[in-house]
Input
Amino acid sequence: MSASPTHFEPEAGASALLRTLLLCDLVGSTALVEKLGDRAAAELIRKHDRMARTVADRHGGREIDKTDGFLMMFDRPIQAVAFALDYQRGLRQLNAAEQSSLAARVGIHVGDVVVWDNTPEDVAKGAKLVEVEGLVKPVASRLMNLALPGQILLSNIAHALAHRAQGELGVQLERVRWRTYGRYRFKGIPDPIPVFEVGEDGVAPLKAPPWSGKAYREIPFWRRPAMLAAEAVALVAFVAIPAFVIFKPEPAIAFADRDWVVVGNLNNLTREPVFDDTLQGAMRIALEQSRYVNVLPDLKVRDTVKRMERDPVTTRIDRTIGSEIAIRDGAKALILPTVAEVGGRVRVTAEVIDPHTQTTVYSESADGIGAESVLPSLDLVNQRLRVRLGEALATVTQESRPLEKVATKNLDALRMYSKAEAVIATGDFTTGLQLYRSAIELDPEFSLARMELASRLISSEGKKAEGREQLRRAMANPERLSTRDKLLGEALLSDFESPGKALLHWRALAELYPDLFRAQGAYGYYAWHYANDYDKALMATRRNAVDRNPRPGIGHYLLGTLLLGTEDYAEALKQFELSEAAGLKLQNHLYATAYAVQRRYDEIDGILAKGRSAPSPSPRDGRLFDIAYAADRGEWKRLESLAAAAAGPSSGSSTGKLVDSDVQLVMRLLLTRPGDRASLVGKLDPALIDEVRKADDHDPKAVDAHILFRAWMAARYGSVDVARSMLGSASERASDDDYPALRKVRDLVLAEIDRRSDNGSAAIARLRDAADGTELYASRVVLMEALSDAKDARGTCEQARWLSGHRGRAYTEVAGGPMFVPFNVAQSNIATLALAECSIDLGKIDEARRALATFQAAWKVDAMPEWIRERMLAVRQRIDPPQPSVAAR
Output
């Protein structure tokens, strides 16, 4: 429903009006502040309030008061209901966007209220603009307090008037449900009040609110809880015991949202071998459409069978084996499918097994005629099972699509697909890819097979062009994919299109399917790599690096990297060790870095020796970290030799050539006296950019990153005109929000240009505005230097402490490009020298002395470049000035 805002005319005095009052309240706001902290909680509440006020304006509401929630006044009940529905839906969207868990309860009542405007003098002293009083207000408050989180409760008069006008809700009417809960007595309200609920499926609780000390449902004396308990005790001897003997109770499973199930091997009692490799896979595809039920991945099942010291190829997942797997992996149920021929009909059955007792809790069956009836029967069984497990019928109906649509009606094609999944689980990708192709030949519109083929081509074979083409063909028939697989296909395709789209699609998929490991892993990686958002990346990666993930190794490694970037070194090392234990074998440079940040350099070589040897000398495969380690240890002679090696012919991809070139520039600048650096950056040759842009394998994002990095170097070391020229040669991608990391580098360049153009205040303002936790490490370096230029010693020290205390971030931050790493690592040490300088300016000589000692321990005096040694000696003299000789006195 949409309505123009109602305009309330100011009253000359107190006036009695018939109005609808709505009270909403955030549940657990105090706990929210304790969990998030004052600042983060305040920002989240501010976004909540803005959303609520926007929705209120849309439906003609007027804000009367505000505490943890709102008191709002409406002309009509239907306006209040429309607001409440949109508000609860908006709250879910806010939670999805902010990774939060806000919940609100709402009470609505209609009646006479007294309204008056406060005088300007009272408003100046803190009074509200408008006051509203009357019995309507406490009744709305009692309804709100009675409500469950996410629930909207109405009084009888509000319900009667709103329900009569429900047609005004428009398109959302079909999702709206009305419930009646009887009369409740409220503390302080003399008469009982009939209570009603309005809400949407999947959003509202749609169940009776519980009794409390302040409200209880009015029922006959003999139906009250205490009396019912006494009656139940009396009945046990006469009814319960005989009934238990006569009737065996049906076993039950306490299944909840997002619990896991194991799908066992098909028991094929027909003479049709085509069912053997088909129906078990089809059962998985059908169940995986659910966001309520999680299916333990087949690869994880195989791993568990191995841990049971059995052969995963020959072991059948029957009642006994499947139950043990479920218990080991924490699954709540085992599902055993069966197909049989009964009376000339094909019967599909699925049993739900309690793994602890191995008893059948319940089973569902569906019959059909002929092999072509099997998939529709399986659809019907799947839907019934999901409802029996506790999923809402409306959700099952809405989110389930026939297997013939989301997979294929060709049983031979489905058989090829199921075999492909099985052989790929054994590591035989060559055979698996051929089986996927065979399935597509049998049904060219088998979109799921195309999508899985594309995914394997990209991730395992490196055939991005062919993989992209298969994805496009799969997405050309989106109606042949389930909701989840369609979203997955869109996310995979967005990787080829833009970082912004990739972030958006993977985030949406990760939020909708919290237990889809590939979504969590991808979103965690892209949030780190494209947006420099360690917090969001950590949240997603933690959901990926879990025992139920059949491939947890890469998740543990990424989680270790992110924890390293947030300075949690002990936990980072633990995750790297778990990655190694899971069998993942990488070059281990980030693993070794967990020791480098703690200056435990002697342990680096051992970690690198355990890793996989590099297939090429690309900086991404080792040389970049060799340079960073040398810069961290102050090994300047080694840096010179590494810089000389980087100056030679670069091998590998065009992107590798760009990184080689940029790292070489950083090293040359670090080894050059400040006064000579401008000549280096003033001679930057754009020919490499033109050469790389012509290469078939060039990455436009990498080209832009290279341009912006060099523009920053030019501005930083005195060639502002060169910086502006290079900034203009970058693509529009570097200026919009499509690639957050590039936008951050561009802002860094602009801040450096401001600083070098004698506009330090603008640089400081720009950098402070961008400091939201996702800012680049280098932006903190520039901010420190700008504050130092402005003689703000306190601000300089604050940034210097941050830089020297975030060495993990210096090593792991690659959002702006890997060429930042050696620069960042060197600056993490230089920051300690800057801390000594600003501490002296503040008169904190002891802190200055400690910072200088840290710097001298990291970089030996005799090996330093001259420009650093001179700066360090100047600090030493300021801390301990030379004493005049006796003769001078």
